[in-house]
Structure formats: structure tokens, C-alpha cells
Description:
Layout: H1 6-39, H2 47-73, H3 81-105, H4 111-136
Amino acid sequence: xxRRGFLLKDMSILLFFSALVRAFFAxxxxxxxxSAMNLRLFDSAHVWLYRSAIxxxxxxxxxxxxxGFMGALYCEEPLLVHRCIAWGAAALIFGLAAxxxxxxxxxxxxAYVWLSxxxxxxxxxxxxxxxxxxxxx
Length: 137
């Protein structure tokens, strides 16, 4: 018999480590952006889009860290799982926004970025919803 909340706990751990890697890449992009601005490599019309993409990536990474921590904390508490759903939804929205903006900016889309920014938070939310359903049954 599987333990209750196993999917939420597993996805929380994956989300936590994924967020660390995404935050590292976001800060790397931020350093590149700052260097490129000093060298005037970007035109001023698209500067706000670059800044928005990097900001959304950093905020998405921070929200994924918080959601991962809360999921691991509340994986055995079905009555408090609504907090995990809210944090997971926020991480999913910022992850999706960062991915779309990176495509518009021209960074492209890699499989890892879509997995860590969209797929992992979506499965995390699914695990939280499954845990919440155990209370209703």
C-alpha cells in the first residue's frame, strides 16, 4: 500500500531542486544582461522585455522553492494542502510567463526549461489535489 501524499512529497523534492537550478540560470542570465547593457548589445525598445523575462524567471524560481518546501512540510496534512495548491499555481504561472517571454526575447525553448517551469509544478498541483481528495472520501 502506498503512503498518502507520496506524489506531493516526491514532486516537492523535485520542484525544490529544479528551482535551485532555475535560479542559478536566471542569475546567470541577469549577469549576462547587465554586461550586455554596458556594451549596448540590446536595443532600448526590448529592454523591458529582457528585464521582465529575467524577473519572472527569478520570481518563478523563488516561488518553486517555497512551494517545494511547503509541499514537503504538508504532504501528510490533507487539510492544509490548499496552501500547496496556491503556491504551486503561482509557481506555474510565473514559470509559464518566464518561458513565453524567453521565447519572445529569442532565448529559445529547451526541454529542461519547459519541464522545470511548467510540467513539474503541474504534477505538483496534481499531487496536492489528489491528497485533498483523500479528505473528501
